[in-house]
Write a structure and sequence with these properties.
Elements lengths: L5 E7 L3 H12 L6 E7 L6 H12 L4 E5 L5 H9 L8 E5 L4 E2 L3 H9 L8 E5 L2 E3 L5 E4 L9 H4 L11 E3 H9 L9 H11 L3 E5 L4 E4 L12 H13 L1 H13 L8 H15 L2 H11 L6 H12 L4
Parallel strand pairs: 1-2, 1-4, 2-3, 6-10, 7-11
Antiparallel strand pairs: 4-9, 5-11, 6-9, 7-8
Length: 308
C-alpha cells in the first residue's frame, strides 16, 4: 500500500518569533509524506518572509502559502478545512509556535489507520507545556473518561494542535462550510466526529511541546487557577453563550449525526429551555457529562442557575 498523505493545516499571524522552531520540527517528522498549507491572517512582521524562505528550501510542493480570511484563528482553520484544493488521506492542525515530536504524525496515523475509510476518525493527545525559553512547565491534563458526543456537547478535551483526522472526518467538517460560527475549531472537530459516530483516540502520551506565552489565544487548562477560571466562565453565563453557538452550528450537519446522537441533542436542547426540575431531569436523561466529579458538579450547578 502507498504511504498515506498528510495535509498539515498551519495558521499564522505575526508568528515570526517561534515559527522557525515549529517548521524545523515539521521537517523532522519520521512520516515523510506530508505537505504544509500555511494560511496567514495578515501578518505585519517577518512571518511571510520566513514562510517563503522555507518554501524555497523545501520546494513548492511541500509548502503552500495562502491568504487567510482575517477574522480570527478558528475561521482561518475552517478556511483550510474547506479548501477544495487541499487533498490528503489525513489532516493535521498546526499552531505556529509549538514544537512537534518527530513521531507525531506516524504515531497518530498508526492509532487510527485501522478505522474503515468511510468512518470519521480523530486522534489527539496530551502536550508537554513549555515557556518562551523552551523550559518545561508541566504536562497537560489527562482525561480518562470516554470521548463521546455527550461529553463533546459540554466540554472540549482535545487540543487542536495535537489533532489528526481522516478524510471522512474532513468531508463532514467541510460540508458545514467555512463560515459556520464556532467557538473554537478544535471543539467543533471533537463534536462533529463524535456526533457522527466516529472513532476518537485520546492518546495519554504527549505528541508535542505546547508553548505558553503572553500572546496565546488559548492557553493550557493546567492547574487549580485555570480550572477555577473556567468554572467562573461556566457560572457567569459565558458557557451558555458558547452552547448556543455550538448548537446552532450543529444544525448544519444534523442530518449526518447518528440516530442516537440526534436523540441526545434533542433531549439536551429541550432541557435547556425547561424549568429547573425538568431541566435537571432532562440533563440526566440526555447523558451529557464532563470529565471529572468537580467538572460535573459545576455542570449541574450551571443547570440549576440556567447557565448551561
Amino acid at each position: 500500500m502507498s504511504t498515506p498523505t498528510v495535509a498539515i493545516l498551519l495558521c499564522t499571524h505575526n508568528g515570526e518569533r517561534f515559527l522557525a522552531a515549529q517548521l524545523d520540527s515539521l521537517a523532522r517528522q519520521t512520516h515523510l509524506s506530508w505537505a504544509v498549507w500555511a494560511s496567514d491572517d495578515g501578518s505585519t512582521d517577518g512571518t511571510i518572509a520566513m514562510l517563503e524562505k522555507y518554501r524555497t528550501k523545501w520546494g513548492p510542493e511541500k509548502l503552500h502559502i495562502l491568504n487567510g480570511p482575517r477574522v480570527g484563528s478558528s475561521a482561518n482553520f475552517l478556511s483550510l478545512i474547506c479548501n477544495a484544493a487541499i487533498r490528503a488521506d489525513y489532516f493535521s492542525y498546526a499552531d505556529q509556535d509549538d514544537v512537534w515530536d518527530p513521531d507525531k504524525l506516524s504515531r497518530a496515523i498508526s492509532k487510527i489507520s485501522t478505522t474503515p475509510f468511510a468512518t470519521p476518525a480523530l486522534y489527539f493527545s496530551r502536550s508537554v507545556l513549555i515557556d518562551e525559553r523552551d523550559q518545561v512547565l508541566g504536562i497537560s491534563r489527562l482525561y480518562t473518561r470516554p470521548a463521546r458526543f455527550q461529553n463533546a456537547l459540554v466540554q472540549n478535551i482535545g487540543g487542536g494542535n495535537t489533532m489528526l483526522f481522516n478524510a471522512s472526518a474532513r468531508d463532514i467538517l467541510r460540508s458545514a462550510g467555512p463560515t459556520v460560527e464556532v467557538v473554537v475549531h478544535d471543539w467543533w472537530t471533537y463534536m462533529v466526529v463524535t456526533g457522527c459516530g466516529g472513532v476518537v483516540v485520546n492518546d495519554p502520551v504527549p505528541s508535542l511541546r505546547y508553548r505558553q506565552h503572553g500572546t496565546n489565544q488559548i492557553g493550557s487548562n493546567l492547574g487549580l487557577w485555570a480550572r477555577l477560571f473556567r468554572a467562573g466562565q461556566l457560572l457567569e453565563g459565558r458557557f451558555r453563550t458558547w452552547t448556543d453557538i455550538n448548537l446552532k452550528a450543529l444544525q448544519a450537519i444534523e442530518s449526518q449525526l447518528s440516530l442516537e446522537n440526534r436523540q441526545v441533542l434533542s433531549l439536551f436542547r429541550a432541557a435547556r429551555q425547561a424549568p429547573v426540575i425538568p431541566r435537571l431531569i432532562g440533563v440526566v436523561r440526555s447523558g451529557i457529562t464532563r470529565q471529572s466529579f468537580i467538572d460535573n458538579l459545576g455542570l449541574y450547578v450551571a443547570a440549576v442557575l440556567n447557565r448551561l
